[in-house]
Amino acid sequence: MFGQLSHKLEVNVPASEAWEIYGTLGLSKLLVEDGSAFEKIEILEGDGGSGTILKKTFMPGSHGFTVHKEKFTKLDNEKRVKELEVIEGGYLDLGFTLFRVRFEIIEKDNDSCIIKSTMEYDVKEEAVANISYPNTDLVAKIAEVAKDYLIKNKATENAA
């Protein structure tokens, strides 16, 4: 059974600034510093580009699992799109055959953009009871952490 969920968040910074966080490993660093979703994020392979593999350890009790590995399968700096797929653990242990997240930074105007996060998943028929696990809570939290950081940095730059 295939499913898709999306979340959008408007941010009052240029799309290029938001992409500086999303298009690099900077987002992972922010998420660990924030401490609300991930206990630890390890880079197993790569430098943040396509093919990079991360091992993410979730905060205890935040999901139905504690660890998963994900691979960046697409990184398009021109279109500001990044895709990753869970390749081990996490949702795959719950009977999902695919769990993909796409982050898009969509330019609204010169001073604002939209962070669009889309999750696509496919679950085995015998594990269809787990279809309720995917939700937009985590991608919404990730977008909020990024937004807070970007707005704070913009305020600091304007004050300087």
UniProtKB/TrEMBL annotation:
<comment type="similarity">
    <text>Belongs to the BetVI family.</text>
</comment>
<dbReference type="InterPro" id="IPR023393">
    <property type="entry name" value="START-like_dom_sf"/>
</dbReference>
<dbReference type="GO" id="GO:0010427">
    <property type="term" value="F:abscisic acid binding"/>
</dbReference>
<protein>
    <recommendedName>
        <fullName>Bet v I/Major latex protein domain-containing protein</fullName>
    </recommendedName>
</protein>
<dbReference type="GO" id="GO:0004864">
    <property type="term" value="F:protein phosphatase inhibitor activity"/>
</dbReference>
<feature type="domain" description="Bet v I/Major latex protein">
    <location>
        <begin position="8"/>
        <end position="152"/>
    </location>
</feature>
<dbReference type="GO" id="GO:0038023">
    <property type="term" value="F:signaling receptor activity"/>
</dbReference>
<dbReference type="GO" id="GO:0005737">
    <property type="term" value="C:cytoplasm"/>
</dbReference>
<dbReference type="GO" id="GO:0006952">
    <property type="term" value="P:defense response"/>
</dbReference>
<dbReference type="InterPro" id="IPR000916">
    <property type="entry name" value="Bet_v_I/MLP"/>
</dbReference>
<keyword id="KW-0017">Alkaloid metabolism</keyword>
<dbReference type="Pfam" id="PF00407">
    <property type="entry name" value="Bet_v_1"/>
</dbReference>
<dbReference type="InterPro" id="IPR050279">
    <property type="entry name" value="Plant_def-hormone_signal"/>
</dbReference>
<dbReference type="GO" id="GO:0009820">
    <property type="term" value="P:alkaloid metabolic process"/>
</dbReference>
<dbReference type="GO" id="GO:0005634">
    <property type="term" value="C:nucleus"/>
</dbReference>
<dbReference type="GO" id="GO:0009738">
    <property type="term" value="P:abscisic acid-activated signaling pathway"/>
</dbReference>
